[in-house]
Design a protein that fits this description.
The chain is an alpha/beta fold. It has helices spanning 15-26, 49-61, 67-84, 92-104, 108-127, 148-161, 187-197, 231-239, 250-256, 312-322, 343-347, 350-361, 388-398, 424-435; strands at 3-7, 31-36, 165-166, 171-173, 179-181, 202-207, 228-230, 260-264, 273-276, 289-302, 327-329, 336-342, 365-378, 405-408, 414-420. The chain has 14 helices and 15 strands. α6 (148-161) crosses α7 (187-197) and α7 (187-197) packs parallel to α9 (250-256). It is globular. The two termini are 36 Å apart. The structure holds aspartic acid. Aspartic acid (ASP) is lined by residues 9, 37-38, 48, 50, 115, 169-170, 184-188. Residues 9, 37-38, 48, 50, 115, 169-170, 184-188 line the site of aspartic acid.
Length: 437
């Protein structure tokens, strides 16, 4: 058994956290590849090192003095180095190089990536295993997307030579030969890429929560954690706002069927959540989780005999595409169709879209309604259970919530409910109480 272990920023924010991580790694010999983030917040008022780096980059780009900011970042690392008692280890030379590059030719991605790079060096020294610079093994294409072919080949070869290693998260090498980062939170993606290229058995992603929760803890008190979730269910829930893992982190491991185990560095005995392709584990509840977002808009279009007009939907959707607006859902009736969009994206272009629909599809009427919240009720268990939608509607009716829209795809993996923004919390609680707690 071989595992990749990725640790998030809060797991590596201080020497004390580093020690917990060290204990986790040494307690299991199968934890062979380590992917660290940059030091995160030590408490709620603290600043992440990545944010400090982005700030010093800004200061340097404005031609201002950076010495105080560099010293503050250096102090964060020195506190960790001293706390770990790493005698003879220093990052002085690295800091000199970073300061020089900022003074001569400041590069945003290079600067931001140093948080992981430096933390990786400390980790390698602390664990006494090799350090592999991500810029030598992870490559991007011209369009900014990952060069999967080259990365798999180079990283795979490097890992084959090193049975254990530290690979810092968040960056790689751009097509122009310069360091390039993923989007924020991208160390999760690095972990997934290392897991895939190293063909390991498990990708453990260590963070500060014990996995995915069945509902948003800001709405539901103490929601149950999810033990097993499939990649597809996760995608549905993350899309609707449940966030623990970077969205793109699923794809590399999913391709080769490596499960992800979300774990809590502060409570390592918790089993966390398993994200898997498919599972025979019986679910405790019919649904796996609930997530939702506010502020959607519906565009309701009606036209007599719409059902027999071939190409009507395409023409309507053309108006949205022409204005570069992505469409979320499309519930339809015989002579009506509704297009659900993000309010923020739609607002400024609404009149253009409406005139576009009139011009392209000549409907009888168009009505817009804003302030809609969407709630996704997700669960692979719904496929074999009857009455889920019925129970859901009853629960909402009993809570006094009017359902504005309901949409269930034939995959039976999720039911999307549209309610008024002001009913969002009440509806979420009612659904949770009905199916889980
Ligand atoms: N340190 C980076 C960030 O704060 C990347 C990561 O932690 O995954 O976004």
């Amino acid at each position: 058994m071989r595992k990749v272990v990725k640790f998030g920023g809060s797991s590596l924010a201080s020497a004390e956290q580093f020690k917990k991580v060290g204990a986790i790694i040494s307690s299991d010999a199968s934890r062979v590849y380590v992917v660290p983030s940059a030091p995160g917040k030590r408490d709620s008022k603290d600043t992440k090192v990545t944010d400090m780096l982005l700030h010093v980059y800004k200061t340097a780009s404005e031609g201002k003095d950076i010495s105080a900011e560099i010293e503050a970042i250096k102090a964060r690392y020195n506190e960790i180095i001293t706390g770990l008692g790493l005698e003879g280890f220093t990052l002085d030379q690295d800091f000199e190089e970073i300061a020089n590059s900022l003074k001569t030719e400041p590069e945003k991605d290079y600067t931001a990536s140093r948080g992981e790079y430096l933390n990786g060096k400390i980790m390698a020294a602390y664990l006494n295993i090799p350090f592999i610079d991500a810029k030598d093994v992870i490559f991007f294409n011209e369009d900014g997307k990952l060069n999967t072919y080259k990365t798999e080949k180079m990283l795979g070869a490097k890992l084959a030579e090193n049975p254990r290693a530290v690979v810092p998260g968040f960056y790689g090498m751009g097509k122009n030969g310069k360091v390039k980062t993923f989007s924020r939170g991208g160390s999760d993606v690095t972990g997934s890429i290392v897991a895939q290229a190293g063909r390991v058995d498990v990708y453990e992603n260590w963070t500060d929560v014990s996995g995915f929760l069945t509902a948003d803890p800001r709405i539901v008190d103490n929601p149950e954690p999810i033990k097993y979730i499939t990649y597809r269910e996760l995608r549905e829930l993350s899309y609707m706002g449940a966030s623990v893992l970077h969205e793109d982190a699923i794809f590399p491991v999913r391709q080769v069927g490596i499960p992800i185990n979300i774990r809590n560095t502060n409570i390592p005995t918790d089993e966390g959540t398993w994200i898997v392709e498919s599972t025979a584990h019986k679910q405790e509840h019919v649904i796996t989780g609930i997530a939702g977002k506010k502020d959607f808009c519906t565009v309701f279009i009606s036209k007599a005999m719409m059902n027999s007009e071939i190409g009507f939907c395409r023409k309507v959707l053309q108006a949205f595409e022409d204005n570069n607006i992505s469409v979320e859902h499309l519930p339809s009736g015989i002579d009506t169709m509704t297009v659900v969009v993000h309010e923020e994206e739609f607002m400024e272009k609404e009149q253009k879209v409406i005139s576009g629909i009139h011009r392209l599809a000549a409907p009888d009427s168009i009505e817009i309604e804003s302030g809609l919240a969407l709630i996704a009720v997700v669960g692979r268990g719904m496929r074999s259970a009857s009455g889920t939608a019925g129970k859901l509607c009853t629960a909402l009716a009993q809570a006094g919530v009017n359902i504005k829209m309901i949409d269930q795809g034939s995959s039976e993996l999720n039911i999307i409910i549209g309610v008024r923004n002001r009913d969002f919390e009440v509806a979420t609680k009612a659904i949770y109480a009905c199916f889980i707690g």
